[in-house]
């Protein structure tokens, strides 16, 4: 007798395992302008516990649910309570499975947002903007100038 695995790449995850998905306010740079976007991201248990302690966060709401209601194979369906313009984060399925494992390892974190409920009493702030498509361009002018004798023995 063989048992069917819900997630072939994650045999330790079942469809009824708990996970939290949040909506983060992020930004995209386009032609020198910055545009706001809503992104659905799985939230690991340690991150959720930190957010609930009151640190500023880009998440304005989070939803507790079972991974099976979100992910079926590679198909993702977000809860109906989420805004229609919500986009999925990169590697959503991979990150959802990883976040699910954190709640299996720390089951007491499941009580913060019970399955089927939403929570939005976070310290929401976009003071430090999360820009999704930013690039760091390093120039020679950025290098720290050192004295000519820095590496010599005098």
Briefly say what this structure is.
The protein has about 150 residues and is of the alpha+beta class. The protein has helices spanning about 45-50, 65-70, 90-105; strands spanning about 20-30, 35-45, 60-65, 70, 75, 85-90, 120.
- The fraction of residues assigned to DSSP E strands is 25-35%
Q: What integer is the average pLDDT? A: 86
Q: Strands of the largest sheet, in order across it?
A: 6-2-1-3-7
**Count of separate DSSP helical elements:** 3
- Largest sheet entry: 5 strands, mixed
Series of secondary-structure elements, N-terminal to C-terminal: EEHEHEEEHE
Q: Which percent bin holds the helix content?
A: 10-25%
Class computed from helices, strands and strand pairing: alpha+beta
Residue runs with pLDDT of under 50 for 5 or more positions? none
The general outline is: elongated
Number-wise, the strands total 7
Cα distance, first to last residue?
78 Å
Evaluate the radius of gyration. Answer: 21 Å
Describe this structure in words.
This protein has 154 residues and is α+β, with helices and mostly antiparallel strands. Helix content is 17%, strand content 26%. The chain has three helices and seven strands. Strands 6-2-1-3-7 form a five-stranded mixed sheet. The protein has a two-stranded antiparallel sheet with strand order 4-5. It is elongated and about 70 Å long.
Features:
elongated, 154 residues, 3 helices, two-stranded antiparallel sheet
């Amino acid at each position: 007798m063989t048992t069917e695995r819900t997630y072939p790449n994650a045999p330790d995850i079942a469809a009824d395992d708990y996970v939290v998905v949040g909506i983060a306010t992020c930004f995209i740079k386009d032609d020198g302008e910055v545009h706001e976007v809503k992104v659905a991201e799985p939230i690991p248990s340690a991150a959720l516990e930190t957010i609930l302690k009151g640190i500023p966060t880009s998440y304005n709401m989070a939803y507790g649910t079972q991974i099976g209601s979100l992910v079926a194979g590679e198909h993702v369906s977000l809860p109906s309570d989420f805004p229609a313009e919500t986009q999925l984060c990169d590697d959503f399925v991979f990150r959802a499975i990883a976040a699910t494992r954190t709640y299996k390892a720390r089951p007491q974190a499941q009580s913060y947002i019970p399955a089927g409920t939403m929570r939005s009493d976070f310290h929401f702030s976009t003071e430090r903007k999360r820009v999704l498509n930013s690039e760091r361009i390093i120039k020679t002018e950025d290098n720290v100038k050192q004295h000519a004798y820095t590496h010599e023995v005098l």
